[in-house]
Write a structure and sequence with these properties.
Elements lengths: L7 H9 L16 H9 L9 E3 L4 E3 L6 E2 L5 E2 L3 E12 L18 E11 L14 E4 L2 E4 L7 H4 L10 E10 L7 E4 L11 E4 L2
Parallel strand pairs: 1-11
Antiparallel strand pairs: 2-5, 3-4, 5-6, 6-9, 7-8, 7-10, 10-11
Length: 202
Amino acid sequence: MKSLSIPSLVLGAVLAMPALTGCSDPGSDSAPPMEQSAAQSEQPAPTPMPTAKMGDPVVDQDPDGPAPDLEGTPYDWSSEFTVTKVETGVELIKSNTEVVEDAKPANGQFVVLHVKVKNVGKTPNTPATSELQYLIQDGTRYAGIDLMGADCRDELDKSLQPGTSAEGCYFFDVPDAVVPQQAELHAQWPHNGSAGVLVQLQ
């Protein structure tokens, strides 16, 4: 069997070489790579969603308003929401037109959120529909549904002048076990800048 040996000169040089592990230039103030990486990974905390109790107003503010819409007309969707009542266990929503049938829940129950919406923007705007709204229970979000022909739905389906308000409803079709703790409301689609507001229902 062959054996390999290190020449004595090379071995002496290796043994005489000072250990470099952990050594650094005393005059250097540069941070270790791990510290630099941690500093670069820091991100600003997200802006908290405005929150209110049921019965108190809270505003979803248009950050760009008034800004041109698709037709080039200045538009400011800033809206103030006040939740005035919550109905749970609703089994039927009557329609006010023969064209649309009365609605029954497909998932268990309707939850009806009664709201007052005020235009606090600088241009006329139309309140958002139920599809932009959410109920929350234990972190689970349930999106609203648009029930055409429901009286209190139609009250919100109109343009509001700045400073004026309307009272109507948002509808949710949810399992029977759901008892909503919060409502997340939007005056516009989130991808269009709406941060939304959070209303405590319990």
